[in-house]
Amino acid sequence: MSPAIALAFLPLVVTLLVRYRHYFRLLVGTVLLRSLRDCLSGLRIEERAFSYVLTHALPGDPGHILTTLDHWSSHYEYLSHMGPVKGQILMRLVEEKAPACVLELGTYCGYSTLLIAQALPPGGRLLTVERDPRTATVAEKLIRLAGFDEHTVELIVGSSEEVIPCLRTQYQLSRADLVLLIHRPRCYLRDLQLLEAHDLLPAGATVLADHVLFPGAPRFLQYAKSCGRYRCRLHHTGLPDFPAIKDGIAQLTYAGPG
């Protein structure tokens, strides 16, 4: 390519970089720099974050542990976690609905797990599912560090597709009053239909789904709005530490099989 042609494209390139600078920063932080740090340290980001929590957070204080994770994400490495803004929405809904049993698909580092656990009513139970054993190990340590035992928070290692059909028989979950989908948006629709098929959603159950706008779950949203079994509401937010990147949490209320 000649220098003249390259210069002709320069204004376009600059315009795109300025317009999509937030996405560019996110790409660099979550893919390029994270991969480099993984290689250099031999640890994943959630393991590095947990090491920071061990030296800076108060054991037995879930609120302080969450604040410490937020500080790590804002000042050191973007954690790709739920964050405080979405976290307030989640905690408010858990406190408002007072579910006897909550199912979380996608434990990741345990951030949203702690949010739910500290908002549960007395005697409430949380089952959280994480497919990656190494990530689950970190989350288990974080959950126990926060002071929650296995009677309150039970972590199941396995893919949601395999775990959901076994919830009733192996984990004594007859119904989930509140479900949080926070794993892979492309799996949301499949797993929602699995929950329906195995009769795990009672009438009035709340289903929350994160990241429905970024990276997005259009098939899930279309199904929820058109099948006639859900009342839908969208809570508009931004990504933690990237508020210019618009995202949202979908809140579905199950009306029953119809």
From TrEMBL:
Entry keyword set: Catecholamine metabolism, Endoplasmic reticulum, Hearing, Methyltransferase, Neurotransmitter degradation, S-adenosyl-L-methionine, Transferase
MF terms (GO), sorted A to Z: catechol O-methyltransferase activity
Lineage, uppermost ranks: Eukaryota, Metazoa, Chordata, Craniata, Vertebrata
Any single GO BP term: dopamine catabolic process
InterPro entries, sorted: SAM-dependent_MTases_sf, SAM_O-MeTrfase
E.C. numbers: 2.1.1.6
Catalytic activity: a catechol + S-adenosyl-L-methionine = a guaiacol + S-adenosyl-L-homocysteine + H(+)
Sequence similarity: Belongs to the class I-like SAM-binding methyltransferase superfamily. Cation-dependent O-methyltransferase family.
Protein name: catechol O-methyltransferase
One CC-aspect GO term: endoplasmic reticulum
Cell compartment(s), UniProt: Endoplasmic reticulum
